[in-house]
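Entry:
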Amino acid sequence: MKPLKVALLGCGVVGSQVIRLMHEQAPDLAARVGAPLELAGVAVRRLGRKRDVEVDPALLTTDAESLVTRDDIDIVIEVIGGIEPARSLITAALSRGKSVVTANKALLAEDGATLHEAARAGNGDLYFEASVAGAIPLLRPLRESLAGDHVKRVLGIVNGTTNYILDKMDSTGASFTDALEEAQTLGYAEADPTADVEGFDAAAKAAILAGLAFHSRVRAEEVHREGITEITATDVASAKAMGYVIKLLAICARSDDGRSFGVRVHPAMIPRSHPLAGVREAYNAVFVEAESAGQLMFYGKGAGGAPTASAVLGDLVAVGRNRLAGTRGPEESTYAELTVHPMGETVTRCHVALDVADKPGVLARVAELFSKHDVSIQTVRQEGRGDDAQLVIVTHRATDAALSATMEGLRELDIVRAVASVMRVEGDEVG
C-alpha cells in the first residue's frame, strides 16, 4: 500500500526519539495504521549539528515552511515548541488538509482556537496527547473515553521538575536552591528553570485539561498561577510534622451550580495518605473525578524524550488510521461555553503560621479577625515562647478572597510580628 508521508519539525530530545521509534517499530506501526509510515523530511535549525539519532542527510532541511506545504506530505509532527514559528507552520499544514500531531502545550494554551479552526477548515486532524503529562494517556480519555460522562474535577501533578525539587526538599531537608541545582545537574531542570518553578508550564497544561474536561475554551492567562520559589525548608518540615507533603498542583474544578469552573496552579499541602503524596521524583499523576466513572488516577513519566515520543507515536497511528479511512478524529468541543470564575471566588482551605507576641489574649484577637471575614478555624496550636512564639492555624473551607482579606488584617495587628507562611490545603476529599 502507498505509504503515508510524515514531516517532522524538530530533531531535539523528543524529535530524535520519534525518529528512532519510527525506524525500530516500522513493521508494527504499518500493521497498526494499515499502511507504511515514511519519514519524508526533518526540519532543523542547523544542518551540521551532531544529533542523538542517525538521520539521512537528504531528509534534513532548514526550510520548514516548504516542508509542511509539500503536496506529498500527509502528516506533520511538530516538536519544536514555542509560539512562533510553530503556530504559522501548523496552521499552514492544517489549511492544506494535512493532519498534525503536536506536543506544544504553550501554543495550545495561548492560541488553541486558531489551530482547531484551521484543522476544521482544512478537514484535517489535530492531535496533542504529548502536550500534557508525557507518556501518560490522559487527554484521549478526557477527549473520548469520558465524552459520555460529566467531569467534575481534575487534580494533579503535571510538572516533573517541580515535583522532583519538592520531593528532594521533603525527603532530604534540602533548601529550594540546593534541590534546584541537583535537578539541573541531573537534567530534570533547564538552565533557566523559570517556566517550571514559576508555574508557567503547569498553567499551560491546566488550561488544556480544563478545556477538555469542561468543554469550554481556556487560555493560559485565565489560569491562576503561583510557583514554588518561595517554598522554604521550614515550610516543608512544618508540613511534614503535621502529616502533609507539599506539591505543586494543577486543579480544575467545576462550580457547584455547574455554570463556571476554576483553573489554578499553586503549591498546596496534601495529606500523606493521599495517593498523590507518594508521587516521587520527576513523575506525574492526575486524578479525574467524573459523575458516573468516579475517581480515576493516571500515573507515569511526565517528561523525557522517549516517554513524550511514545505519546507522539500513539497520535501518529491514530491520525494515520483516520487518513486512510477518510475520516477525522474528534473536533474541539466548546459547546458548554462555561466561564472561568476568578480565584477570589474559589473555595479553599489554608494552613497559616503566624509569629506572634507571647502574651495573653493573642489567640482571642486572631480568632476574632478570622471570624470577622467569615473564615472558621478547624485547628490551632501554639508553638514556642517569647520571641519564638508562633500560632499555627488550619482553616475550614472559605473563599480565597476571604482568606486573602484575613491575611491582610493579620499583618496589621500589633500582636502579629509576621505572617510566616500561608499554604493552601488540598486533597482531603480525594482518597
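The chain has 14 helices and 18 strands.
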